[in-house]
Each structure stands twice: as structure tokens, then as C-alpha cells.
Amino acid sequence: MISFLLVFLGGGLGSLFRYTIGLLLKPISPQLPLATLIANAIGCLFLGLLMGFLSTKSCVSSTQHMLLAVGFCGGLTTFSTFTLENMRFIEQGQFFNFFIYSIGTFILGMACIYAGMLLHKQF
User: What is the pTM of this model?
Assistant: First the structure.
């Protein structure tokens, strides 16, 4: 049960951080989704740092992992997780999986956005 609470708390904080980035950057770049780019970059950087600490078995506990990696980074952006998964494919030499997953995610995402927009018009 504590894991659920940690993910909930971290996710809320990550989402709030993403929202704040959007508020701060909207006046600077109203036409370009700069806030999304920055949020994704920060999420990737933070998750990469966290995973680096975890891989060296340093002081990051499973509790901190749930709060920060799953919760905060998940709330901030799922792009960081997507990128980490792709990095793992590359590290393991699974280039076919890397290609299929990357292209498939993009195409599926675009298709789902389009489907959602079409469905919206039905209601």
C-alpha cells in the first residue's frame, strides 16, 4: 500500500512541476510546445541520473525509486520511461526492437490522438 501512496505523491508532484513549466514558458513560446520539450528533457535527465545511482547500488532505496522514478518522472513525463526503455534496447544490441518500439510508439500515438479527435466529434 505504501508503494501506491508514493507513486501517487510523486506523480502529483511531477504533474505539478510539468504544469508550472508550462505556465512559465507559455509567454516565451506560445506556438511551439517548448514546455513539453523541456519537461521531457528534464524527466529524461532526472530518470537517467536516478537510474545511474540505482545501477551503482548507491543510497537510492526502493521507496525513493517508487517516489521519484515511477511517481515523479511518470507524472512529469512518460517520455523519460520510453527513452530509458529504448536505451536498454540499444545497450543490449536489440536494434530491431528499438526500431519497432520507437516507430510503433510514434505511429500508435499519432493514430490514437487522431482517433480520440474523431471520437470527440461524435459526442
Answer: 0.73
